[in-house]
Amino acid sequence: MQWFECKVKYDKMVPEAGGQKVVTESYLVDALSFTEAESRITEEMQPFVSGEFSVTAVRRINLSDVFYHEGGDRWYKVKTNFITIDEKTAVEKKTATFQLVQASNFKEALDVFMEGMKGTMADFEIASITETALMDVFAADLQHTLADKK
Question: Which CATH class is domain 2-61?
């Protein structure tokens, strides 16, 4: 599974601004290629955007896992260092990985992350948890994908 951050520019209805305003928002999609990512974000955004919109950027994001939490309205990026010991030299080695967590606040992000990591046998430490600018995450529809292969 590869994740791509897509920036989408469109006219958004903003009552506080007295009408429409051009905004650029970030979304995450999983896809096999840059082309598929652009196609998927276009498909996902069409029902929600009236008028024109454009995909202004697509870039690959390195994530090892995504933890969903139904009540969460924000996305947090967690940098985790997995700790291993080299058997020959007895030197500790840290390997950084990144996970995405859906939560309403920082504490909930930590709780959801720790719950998701419960079954992990490896030693790890949390290096950082930061709130992202992501508006939403669109995972591939596995049922749709499996049906296409039949």
Answer: alpha beta
User: 81 to each of 10, 38, 99, how far by Cα in Å?
Assistant: 37, 31, 11
Q: What is the pLDDT of residues 86-111, one digit of tens each?
A: 888 889 999 999 999 999 999 999 99
Q: What residue ranges do the domains of the chain occupy?
A: 2-61, 65-131
What the block records as the tokens of 15 is 């009552």
As given in the structure block, the two tokens for residue 32 are 């096999």
Is the whole model's pTM more than 0.90, yes or no?
no
The encoded tokens of residue 57 equal 């950027």
Task: Give the residue carrying structure tokens 């309403």.
Answer: 104
CA–CA gap between residue 30 and residue 120 (Å, rounded): 24
**Do 96 and 64 contact (CB within 8 A), yes or no?**
no
